[in-house]
Write a structure and sequence with these properties.
This protein is mostly beta strands. It is about 10% helix and about 45% strand. The chain contains three helices and 22 strands. Strands 1, 2, 3, 4, 5, 6, 7, 8, 9 and 22 form a ten-stranded mixed β-sheet that branches. A four-stranded antiparallel β-sheet has the order 10-11-12-13, with no helix packed on it.
Length: about 300
Amino acid sequence: MKLRRFALVLTGFGLLAASTNTTAATTATAAPGSAIAAAATCWNSVVWPTKANVVDTVDVTAHKPPAPVSPPYVYSKFFATRFMDRWYLAWNAAGTQYYAFGLFLLGSNLYRHTTVLSGGRPAQSKAVRVGTGWASFKSIATSNYPLKGSRPAYLYGLNSNGNLYRYAPNGAGYRSAGSFAGFRGFKTMTMISEERAYDTLLMTTTAGALYTIHIPTTAGAKPVVKLIRKSGWAAYESLVVNKCGVNGATIIIAVDHDTKAGYQYGFSRFNGTATAMMSYGKVPVVFNGLNHTSQIGFQFVLLGE
């Protein structure tokens, strides 16, 4: 990945654009629409593995219609994942090497990858198996609350048996941190909020409904399930989430794998059926991935609820 493009991605998340924070904060609590679309920090950065075992990426500004910043860019050889969690972008202390890391499912195993994005040669990806027994899991999502020691950075797994499982880091792998029943009709999920006291997942059902699942970090606490929309989301297999500004608003590209089409939406802070939603329209990009996820700076948290 070219350093110039990587800098552009980081600017979009506010890493190199402190001067835009005032505008972003002003629009973040507003209902989605022209204000959010006009903010320089509001966009999606999408990454996906293809059947050719390469990873493509594209940045899409929140706009009506959606506006790709550039044509899709091929990162590197990768892996034929059946589900991939978001890529966390990071860099070394000298600022000379940029890389991404994250988790994915391949067959019955859970892997962690590290993808080096700079160094004067094509991006390189390496993966290490960190868990087995994942064949029945349909979707995974991670929280990344960055204040070390304050709470675990949980991993969630949606299982075909109808349970949602939570895991906490345990050395190089993960240990069980509880499970929640009642999710048999759910299809896919992604993280939209990661606070000190809770995580919130955004999930779709096979019937097309959209829900938030608010899960306190306290052991034994029960999830709070809220309906966002009753219908309209059945076609989507991937939900690509990026936040808009410092607090509140969320930008999502929902991808239909059958048609290779992605549609961009803006949401106000999630609050059940009172959540405001703005449809920006179809993204003029062919999303030909096995699955699709977001890229985000590792030290930034999602605050969608």
